[in-house]
Amino acid sequence: MISLTSPVKTRAHGWPAGAKLAGLCAATVMLFMLQNPIAQTAVLAGVTGLYALPGRLFLITGLRHLRMLVPFIAVIAVWHLWSGAVAQGATIILRMLSAVALANLVTMTTRLTDMMAVVRSLAKPLTRLGLRGDVLELAIAMVIRLTPVLAHKGNLLAQSWSARSPRRAGWRIILPFTIIALDDADHVAEALRARGGFDALKES
Amino acid sequence: MEKNVTLIALFAALIAALGLIPPVSLGFGVPITAQTLGVMLCGTILGARRGTFAVLLFLLLVAIGLPLLSGGRGGLGVFAGPSVGFLVGWPIGAFVTGLIVEKWRGAPLMIVAGVAAVLGSIIVMYVFGITGMAIMLDKTLLQAAGIAMVYIPGDLLKAGIAAMLTSALATARPASVLSRLNAQ
Lengths: 204, 184
Fold this sequence. Notes:
The complex is a heterodimer.
Chain A: H1 17-33, H2 37-52, H3 56-65, H4 70-83, H5 86-108, H6 112-123, H7 133-162, H8 174-194, H9 199-203
Chain B: H1 2-18, E1 24-25, E2 31-32, H2 35-46, H3 48-63, H4 84-103, H5 109-136, H6 141-148, H7 152-172
Antiparallel strand pairs in B: 1-2
Helix pairs in contact in B: 1-2, 1-3, 2-3, 2-4, 2-5, 2-7, 3-4, 4-5, 5-6, 5-7
């Protein structure tokens, strides 16, 4: 499965993931304290500069990730143009863009394995509450593996539907899809148990 | 335990797979995705605890950078955007949905699951979603609610589908509706 980490190597790829995440938290809190559109413009310009440093491809990918904000930008822009509080509207839009862009920047420059290491260390104190780190990691791996399997089975169901009906399958295939998925879960759980179950994780 | 963890992972994958279905437009241009249907099913089928864990596992994968939200979105950016409140509300919504299905045994499952999906996965989720939107977009709760309302018809439709699916599954495979099994 493709992760959102950028294939364009940057210097930030080498930085410790924990530090990047802590920095992101601090920066986001600060963004929300800045209530001035000029300061927010400066921040966004700085963030855009960070995206431009690794080159064009990185910048374009980064901009593409911000597309999900377009409807919100449109709503806020129309709202504030209509109500007259333009400076406040500009602050909101600029802040939203910077906050999401900064967070995406951390995602784009951090490998999945490094993120997993952070998750592992964050999960360690939860061991006392009964959460096993090795089981959590196995569960994460299972989701990554099962998602394409389920998507494939869903496609097969949609195909067999369209072989028999001119209409779109829509929600009608979700019931057989769920049943197939539950069967798969049975088989996977059986296979895990046959290999010694979660107790085998401890030994390896 | 193997069985429970596998089911949790499977339903997390189910939410992800439902996100691959292209969004449908409900006449007036608002896209609805099947993804929140997955959250409702986590509650109605898996029950409160397992359902919550499945949703949390899914969100963890999104946070570490997998593009599993509908439209290929993911990464930390979605948690810094205006719809973060809805994501926070997902596991809580799944919990409430599951809890209602587990506790309320007096009515047909179709009705129970429908009410549970509306209360948990719409009302509870919107409380968080609207609060998040109000904070991120600097609006009052009422104004944010106005913006969020466009998604209500789609979610009501999904609650109906979740109710039908759960009761159909209970007829076809009673053992699969874990929220209704006494042994947890």
